[in-house]
Records
---
Amino acid sequence: MRHACMLPFTEKQIVTTGDYCETYSSKLPTSILEQIHFTDKLSKDEVVMAPSLSQCSWLMGFTQSLAPNRILELGTFTGVSALAFYEATKKNLAEIVSMDMSEKYLKYAEEAFRRHGATDRISTIQGPCLETLPTLTGQFDLIYIDAAEEEYEAYTRYILDNKLLSSRGVILVDDVLLEGLVVDQSIAKNFPEEIQEPYLAIADKMNAFNSYAASEPRVTTIMIPIFNGVTQIMWK
């Protein structure tokens, strides 16, 4: 049976299926597994910001296929995804620039980069992405957006307006389904009461971004219902 979107799994089945996919996928490099293990020791609210093992595997496969020479990441967090990009580009030795406004998280990430010998190709920038984007020069073949969701449209507009994306480049935008809130705001009732309103406000911003990305005349946009929603953007 062909489903228009995702298989009709219960929450328990989703977890089980994720474990199944991890079992039958190639094992991730030690650097990524160790940093995921480190991240899992943080608070519950922090842990959810990190990519899963399956998402890391997918990011590595996508990156290997694209073979980018330069990668830009907006939102370093603890460095898990940056390490995935690093491991995926050992053949073509891509330069990776990762930025985050949090000194705390950048410290975690930079310690991991040093520990795994990744500082030869990964550089970090601290500060709000909208302030640090103008400091960049040249173009990037892969841009991964996983920072402040309410600023996604501003990031993308700046990247396109200033040609930071190369002619063959791809922007990957994470979390575009926002726990499903962009599709069904009643899902907010499952969240702790104190964060329901803030998340609904972000969902409104994400809906606005999704509408913008789909209608932006300069690019081709594909929204993929995997993980927490990923949108792929390329020049036409």
---
Amino acid sequence: MPVPDPEPAESTTTTPLAPPPRLLDQLREHIRVKHYALRTERTYVEWVRRYILFHGKRHPRDMGALEIEAFLSHLALERGVASATQNQAKAALLFLYKEVLRAVDLPWLTEVVAAKTSRRLPVVLTQREARELLMQLHGAHWLAASLLYGSGLRLLECLRLRVKDVEFERRELVVRQGKGSKDRVTVLPENLLLPLRNQLAQARALHERDLAAGRGAVWLPDALAVKFPRAARAWGWQWVFPSRVLSVDPRSGVERRHHLAEQGLQRAVSLAARRAGIDKPCSPHVLRHSFATHMLQAGYDIRTVQELLGHADVKTTMIYTHVLNRGGRGVLSPLDAL
């Protein structure tokens, strides 16, 4: 009688497990889950990388408060970084330990002392200097710089303006997802209405060429691209200041048209200040400082200026009151009385 074939034994071979993600990749994933900005992601990853290299490539899990304090002390004493930079590095390391390594049972997390932030007065241009600086700019860079000074926008708030957020009839600009992911409304200068319409006409012509070439989609925040598949190509969602070249999204890998690069406007403002003979250090943010100061000088209420700037605390706005007095605190020097 034939012997039946034995049942096949269970295979002892198992599919090899995929290696766990690298620490920096885990850090990127946690940052994206919390919807942090791309530049915050890059900054945090870079600080964690420097921290690991500083301690001879030891794993952060094997280090703690002493290693963090040693690294922060190195930044302050040997690298001479500003207190804000030192606190930025500290924030990146605490995010790593709390969110990625889940070090909730380590009491030293709350004991790492932050560097004392220095109180610096902002650089402010006079109205004459602001006028002469803007006269040295042309094209889209002139218009963007004029909005920084005329509307009090931050650099990226200006470059990230969408067509739908320009309110010509109400003379308003709607700032979406500004600092702290807050929306606000600010003034649209009367003198920029025609230049802004011309800029939008150029942007529309560029957008129509993109559509004809099978492109024309822009990046949309959150999950809007999934909820509204056609919105990415709609005219209202296009950038007011589109870039002349296409670029690849570093997160999704999709090639699309982004807005103007902030480095280009920063360089243009710096060169314009040099040509205008302005000796003060000038960056696009100086124009925002000048907007706030000149608004207060014109007699506008500080709460109104706070709202236009998007400051969460009026104390931040009050720093601009240092120029409201004539001379040094508005007093007469005894030397002038001789």
